[in-house]
Specification:
By secondary structure, the chain is an alpha/beta fold. The chain has helices spanning 16-21, 32-49, 52-60, 102-111, 128-134, 141-147, 167-172, 190-198, 222-225; strands at residues 3-7, 25-29, 94-98, 117-121, 136-138, 150-153, 177-181, 202-207, 232-233. The protein is built from 9 helices and 9 strands. Helix 2 crosses helix 4 (102-111).
């Protein structure tokens, strides 16, 4: 054996020291598509925290807020003329990653610069070396849901995960948290998510995959997305 080639960035299950002692090269190849999904999830997190769609609507309808436009210079600019409140931040928040493979690792790497406390949950806990390198902490599911300001859902679709992100799941989440999903199609109960948004259990949500794709006309999330104030991104 001369080479161990990992398709992906996670080599934590390979005995690097023994390979090195035997003169075996261990190589890893980050997967571009996983990195792109991780970037997409970061966009979902930021856009939901900053209420992007609502802010765009407010800017488009600036004249409704009663202030006349004035030329900006070094002495004048209009600060928060719409009097927006309750904008969230990634900095100092707790982000829980549910389902932690290649994409989850890439998300965790990108959250380092935001000063987040990153929790994760998966079937088999990572070795301590991986947790230290990625600056993440393992949490049981209930603890992850109750303490996270953001939940990143990256579970794949299996029969046992089908519609598993359901009403009980959202009730167990911290009230006012944000739910973002790039996980498998069919994992999220969309009716339950719609209810969690309308009852204000959630501050916002961004969803990338759906039970029926392309998204069905009767998807319960579609009526909500028409109103930017619901802070929903599809």
């Amino acid at each position: 054996l001369r080479l161990i080639q990992r398709l992906g960035s996670m080599t934590y299950d390979i005995d690097i020291q023994t390979a090195k002692s035997q003169g075996i090269i261990v190589s890893r190849l980050p997967v571009e598509s996983c990195i792109m999904v991780a970037e997409h999830m970061l966009m979902q997190l930021l856009a939901s925290a900053k209420r992007l769609r609502e802010m765009m609507k407010i800017t488009r309808e600036a004249e409704k807020h009663g202030e006349l436009p004035q030329l900006c210079d070094e002495d004048y600019f209009a600060y928060n003329w719409a009097e927006c409140r309750d904008i969230h931040s990634l900095w100092g928040s707790t982000v829980g990653i549910l389902g932690f493979g290649e994409i989850g690792a890439e998300v965790a790497r990108r959250l380092k610069g935001f000063g987040c406390n990153v929790l994760y949950n998966k079937r088999n806990r990572l070795p301590s070396l991986a947790e230290e390198e990625l600056q993440i902490n393992y949490a049981e599911l209930d603890d992850l849901l109750s303490s996270s300001d953001f939940i990143c859902m990256l579970l794949p679709f299996f029969p046992e995960t089908s519609q598993s992100i359901n009403e009980q799941f959202f009730k167990r989440m911290k009230k006012g948290a944000i739910f973002v999903s790039c996980g498998g199609s069919g994992v999220v109960d969309e009716k339950a998510l719609a209810n969690a948004l309308t009852t204000k259990q959630l501050y916002g949500a961004a969803v990338d995959t759906f039970t029926y794709e392309p998204i069905a006309k009767n998807n319960p999330l579609l009526p909500l997305v028409d109103d930017p104030n619901n802070n929903l991104i599809l």
